[in-house]
Design goal:
- The chain is mainly α.
- It has eleven helices and two strands; from the N terminus they run H-H-H-H-E-E-H-H-H-H-H-H-H.
- Strands 1-2 form a two-stranded antiparallel ribbon.
- Helix 1 packs antiparallel against helix 8 and helix 5 packs parallel to helix 8.
- It starts with 16 loop residues before the first helix and ends with a helix.
Length: 257
């Protein structure tokens, strides 16, 4: 049954759709704080790119694990279905856009712009599931909704950091990284009010939505972030050792002849 107008439980604070929208907007804006470390970090070498990808992969893996945990408690099989659908969706999306060298996203171009587009897109889809969660929480009262809002706002900060860790080392400005971090959270204030008004309709699909977001994030971690997390120094060191060994064998062979 749809819920209209203002609702108040005994001893609770009044809640309506506009309250939910304002609270979810606050949570979305918190993601911009994830870009703040780059105000003081200026070393953006290619080695730092590998480190930043590793940190972003760890943050996104932890976020995906949290989503799976929340969903399994409600509907485990729906979470499993969502995981498969999320991973398949990102794979098909990645294959659809291909490797476009002409892609431009702000200061980023080519492969860097493509990776940024995929990361931001997946994080935006992930925020949609959180928007559903915010709306459902306010269905249980203002105090519960406020608690969940603060938790998601705190959760959005490291997610903004994950996006910034991908964008800034590739040439994006701190301001644009903060903007894309907030952009990725816009589904929260857009979806949360409708979820609050029609909470009985959205509650059954929440586990599948959480699984979908987690599956998409894990695909990104495994196929986009971890391959770039290998430090160039490690590869160059092994290559140098191999070259030195080959040169030594060649020299030994020449001496024996």
């Amino acid at each position: 049954m749809a819920r209209c107008g203002r609702r108040r439980n005994p001893g609770d604070v009044p809640v309506d759709a506009w309250t939910v929208f304002a609270a979810a907007s606050f949570a979305a804006l918190a993601a911009a704080f994830g870009a703040l470390p780059f105000v003081v970090v200026h070393d953006m070498s290619r080695r730092w790119l590998g480190v930043s990808n590793a940190i972003a992969a760890a943050i996104m893996t932890a976020a995906a694990a949290g989503l799976i945990w929340q969903g399994v408690r409600i509907g485990p099989w729906r979470v499993v279905a969502g995981l498969a659908a999320g991973a398949l969706f990102v794979r098909l999306f990645r294959r659809l856009i291909g490797d476009r060298d002409d892609l431009v996203l702000g200061r980023l171009a080519g492969a860097d712009a493509l990776k940024a587009l995929v990361i931001v897109g997946v994080m935006t889809a992930h925020s949609a599931a959180e928007g559903v969660g915010v709306g459902i929480s306010y269905g249980g009262g203002g105090r519960l909704g406020l608690l969940i809002t603060l938790a998601i706002a705190a959760h959005n900060i490291p997610e903004g950091l994950a996006i910034s860790l991908v964008l800034v080392p590739r040439g994006a400005s701190v301001r644009s990284a903060a903007w894309w971090s907030v952009f990725s959270c816009l589904p929260q204030p857009l979806i949360a009010p409708f979820t609050y008004l029609f909470v009985e309709w959205f509650h059954p699909i929440l586990p599948a939505g959480l699984g979908f977001a987690a599956g998409a994030m894990l695909w990104i971690v495994w196929f986009e972030l971890l391959p770039d997390a290998r430090l160039p120094g490690c590869r160059s060191t092994s290559t140098s050792a191999w070259s030195a060994s080959r040169t030594s064998r060649s020299s030994s062979g020449a001496t024996s002849r």
